[in-house]
Amino acid sequence: MALTLAAGRSHLLVIDVQDRLAPVVDGVDGVVATVRFLAEVAGLCAVPTLITEQYPKGLGHTVSDVLSSSAKPQVVEKTAFSAARESKVMIRLRKKRDEQRRDQIVITGMEAHICVLQTALELQEQGYTVFVVADGVSSRHIGSRDIALSRLAHAGVTPVTSEMVAFEWVGDAKAKMFKQVSSLVRHR
Questions:
Q1: For helices 28-44 and 162-170, what crossing angle results, to 10°?
Q2: Is 127 exposed, middle or buried (0-12, 13-18, 19+ CB in 10 A)?
Q3: Span 145-150, average pLDDT
């Protein structure tokens, strides 16, 4: 199992960063800023982005800051807490894995102890290498997030930070997107 992220093997999965859920999530402004940052870096590094929306009739749609920062995001509605149980999500992920060897899933979003946790565990069970962005997930209660991150780490899901992801995707200071990513880091 590869523990180093590679842009050419990665997929960014944004879980349920939605209008009506966001106001009750602890530290939501930081989470949205981190998701936005990762979506911008993903665009620069040609990493596909998939966004899920949990029951949008009740929870609203993805917050506009996230949508506007994503290059050609694909948005999929779901009702299952785990995105890995949604056929539209899995069809897209499997297609990228089969055609482009994208077997690494970087997960960010809400709520860490429900949808993020269940998605990460089930994707790992299906053979993906899963990374959860610790500064890019939260829950209504910070303790729930902390327990979720601990449980995920004990289950073998790799915790990362958004800057770890960004610079592993870039890989080299000589890369054409290095200056752009560095600028995004400085202006966060």
A1: 0
A2: exposed
A3: 98
